[in-house]
Amino acid sequence: MSLFGKLFGSGGKGGKGPTPQEAVQRLRETEDMLAKKQEFLEKKIEQELMTAKKNGTKNKRAALQALKRKKRYEQQLTQIDGTLSTLEFQREALENANTNTEVLKNMGFAAEAMKAAHQNMDIDKVDDLMAEITEQQEVAQEISDVISRPIGFGQEFDEDELMAELEELEQEELDKNLLEVEGTEDVPLPSVPATSLPSQPGRTPKKKEEEDEDDMADLEAWAAN
Each residue's pLDDT tens digit in the chain (225 positions)? Predict the structure, then answer.
């Protein structure tokens, strides 16, 4: 048993030592108690100082006693300040130790979980599996390339020959159009008469037909003689 355990007794349940959480809680309670003690002493110091000022000229003995009490209160206040600093340091150390303990515990738990997850894994099998996946991906890519390739049904044509034939056809069509344009330029167009044609006044289409009939009758008579 530690020295503090011998002096103050064990604080844990069933005779066991206190847990870090219990120790931290007790330290906080002690800090709160000392903080209240500080407030009390500060008030007492202020009161004794007022008493000394009040009796400074009237009752020096009472003033001196008030100043002595004030000094004792100040000493106690100084001691409490030192004690609080020690308690705060100890509490922070316990909190850090408790945090480190929890962190290590969780890290150990995670390590065990990782170990269990990798228990049935073999690095050689993983390598083989990745190689197989890569191979299948390559096969799938080759199949996609073959499927997307244009199908010529056994007929393969030279692109250069096709382009040359197309250019020849275009040149023939261009030459033909040029010849047609040149031919139309050589044929003279009829000129428009400058003066209007003379008209026969009084001769209607009906009268002309009658004259033609008379001429035909005369011709037939001449042929009969």
Answer: 454 454 345 455 555 778 888 998 999 999 999 999 999 999 999 999 999 988 888 888 889 999 999 999 999 999 999 999 999 999 999 999 989 989 999 999 999 998 888 888 888 888 888 999 999 999 999 898 888 876 655 556 678 888 888 888 888 888 888 887 766 655 555 555 555 555 555 555 556 667 777 777 776 666 665
DSSP 128-188: HHHHHHHHHHHHHHHHHHHHHSPP-TT----HHHHHHHHHHHHHHHHHHHHHHHHHHHHSP
Nearest by Cα to 49 from 31, 33, 63: 63
First to last CA, the chain: 180
**Please, what is the Cα angle at 214 between 212 and 215, to 5 degrees?**
65
The two three-digit tokens of residue 142, written as one number: 């080759």
Q: Output b/e per residue, 180-217; b: 16+ Cβ within 10 A.
A: eeeeeeeeeeeeeeeeeeeeeeeeeeeeeeeeeeeeee
